[in-house]
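hiii so my PI (J.) wants the whole complex modelled not just the main chain, which honestly fair. so below is everything: two entries, each one labled with what it is. i double checked the lines twice but i was tired so who knows lol
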Amino acid sequence: MTKGKAKVNFWERNRLSNGYLMRKKVMAVGVSIVRFILLFGLCFLILQPILQKISVSFMEEQDLYNPIVINIPEHFTTENYRLCADPQIMDYSNGLKNSLIVSFTIAILQIAMCTLVGYGFARFKFPLKKFWFAMVMLVIVIPPQTISSSLYLHFKYFDILGIFKLITGETVNLRGSALPYYLISAGCMGLKNGLYIYMVRQYFRNIPIDLEEAAYIDGCGTLKTFVRIMLPQAKPIITSCFLFAFVWQWTDGFYSQMFLSQIRLVSTSLSTIVDRIAVYLARISGSGVESATISPARSNQILSTGTLMIVFPLIFIYLVAQRQFVESLSSTGIKM
Amino acid sequence: MKKAKKLAGLEKRKAISGYIFIAPFIIGFLVFMVKPFIDSLMMSFQLVELSGEGYTRTFNGFTNYDYVFNVDSQFNRLLTEEMIRMVIYTLAIIVFSFFISIILNQKFHGRGLVRAVFFLPVILSSGVILGLEDNNSYMQVMKDTVEATTQGISVSAAVESILKTMDIGGAVFDKVFEVIDNIYDVAISSGMQIIIFLSGLQTISSSMYEAASIDGCTKWESLWKITFPMISSLFLVNWIYTVVDFCMRSDNQVISRVQFTMISQLRYDYASAMAWIYFLVVVVFVGITSLIISKVVYYND
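here's the output for the full assembly
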């Protein structure tokens, strides 16, 4: 009844408004159709490579050369995954374990430090504060590659004020151990750490100061106030920064190659996967050549499978914690 | 008198705890940033020789820079190519993310899903995964075959040829079409920028749009008269973020050249000089463009 009434009312109102209402309605529908097509196309564009990788990864090799097979494999197989997970190729289980440990510990360390620093910048007045914050900005802007050459040597012949050389007569080679990277992370100089400091600071600045003042009046110390009062409030930004740190560390190639080359990580083993496959196939086929040539389609397939295996944990994390990634960031209120 | 002194004491205490809080940053900055930074600057003017014991460094003036510019066969070309690519892509990413964020700020069904999809590349196409598809030689062969078989079939190519025959075209159009052909690259690198713009759009109060529409302002006008100025400061943020992000991408040719020189050729001195040239070029570029943008930016408060 009410629906019918509304409909009558619509045409009646439309007539009274000289067709303005109708035009407006048509415009709205048109806009939403155009929007749907545009967004659908763009979403498809973004998702298509992933979908295609999934479909390719389940194909047998003969399907790759079959022009009839496009998306749905004719001979369904999980052999590619097994091949990629092989200890001689990606060493998936080992790499996964190492990557998990490294990314987790690094992310925890980085975020703990960045939260402290961000809080310091947000809440305290001290001399040279502007200068130090400008330095944070500088850290965001400087590409780590600029200083990589000297960092490389710095850790190859590591020494603290010549002490080691005095005692043992030699400098310590820290390259190949993970220690330098942990040190760097503890000093807030890891991957995109300036950005985390900036985000945490921005978040803390939006929290009213009254609560802390009340805590101070009640005799709570600075550190205790921070841990007891402020940290629980900053949970959303800390989780989202942690997720970023974890994910970016997971896929990072630069620092991993430089400092963690000794550890089998999924990210570093992915970059050499195709060459490894070639060597591996040559070995099992027993031919004398050093590396077998594999067809582009086949190597693409292996690469797709490897990529999928690496991003699978990330997709899982993203699906679970999507809100933490997107919403908390947009509520930070990034300003300049 | 006494009261003032006490306040000074509290302020001093707060200043000290402030420094304690940011101490990790200061230490890390001095040890892992300033020292290597100066070190690499010095190295770029020195001859670095590696030996089993350690390494020796002797000053040799501008020889490294001379080598990089005049002897190295690729660096100049890579640097100019990367800079041009950077300017074009940064512009494209900013424009793209601005319009997408406006669309994503509207209310429609499935908005959360679409936002999630647009943000997905920030997570998936980061680090090694991004560079992988370009670096792999097999993939390159594959790409060439695909390009060879589909040449002239794509819509943009058709439009381009029509425009060419109508004598509309030139260098600018070529670049525009290049960007359109690579819209995938643009889309996957603008996730963060979209989020930053969205965060700005959410702070604009709807009463402003209502007032404007009562005064007879169309949607298109209010886009340029309200939305654009209100989030113009975020253009600066996004500009800097995109440029910096571009420098750190793993498919950046200059950076891979630097790393090749360092790791494969073991020429730390040349690598430092290259890194410094690139760094200076980028810093000057960011500095000048941000200055220009910040002149135009409108601050509401």
